[in-house]
Amino acid sequence: MMIYVVMGFLWLALLLYLVMGGADFGAGIIELFTSNANKSRTRRIMYNAIGPIWEANHMWLIIAIVILFVGFPVIYTTMSTYLHIPLVIMLMGIIARGTALTFRNYDAVTDNMQRVYNKIFVYSSFITPLFLGIIAGSAVSGRIDTGATDFLSAYVYSWLNLFSVAIGFFTVALCGFLAAIYLIGEANDEAETKSFIRKARFMNIAAVVAGGLVFIASVTEQIPLVEWVFGSIIGVLAVSAASISLIVMWYLIVKGKRFIIRVLAGFQMTMILLTTTYKHYPNIVILKNGGYLSLIADRGADKAIEGLGIALLIGSLFILPALGYLIYSFQRKDKGDLAEH
Amino acid sequence: MAARSQMALSLGFHIIFSCIGMVMPFFMAVSHFMYLKTNNPVYRNVTKAWSKGVAIFFATGAVSGTVLSFELGLLWPTFMKHAGPIFGMPFSLEGTAFFIEAIALGFFLYGWGRFNKWFHWFTGVVVGISGLASGILVVAANAWMNSPSGFTLVNGKYTNIDPIKAMFNPAWFSQALHMSVAAFAATGFAVAGVHALMILRKRNVDFHMRSFRIAAIFGVVAAILQPLSGDISAKMVAKRQPAKLAAMEAHFKTEPYSPLIIGGIPDVKNKKVDYVLELPGMLSFMVYDDFKTPVKGLDQIPLADQPPIAVTHYAFQLMVGLGMAMMALGVIYLIALAKKKSWFTKEWFLKLFIAATPLGFIAVEAGWTVTEVGRQPWIIQGVMRTKDAVTPMPGIGYSFYLFTAVYFTLSIAVIFLLYRQIKMVPVLYNNAEPQTH
Question: How far apart are alpha carbons B135 and B24 in whole angstroms?
Answer without folding.
Answer: 13
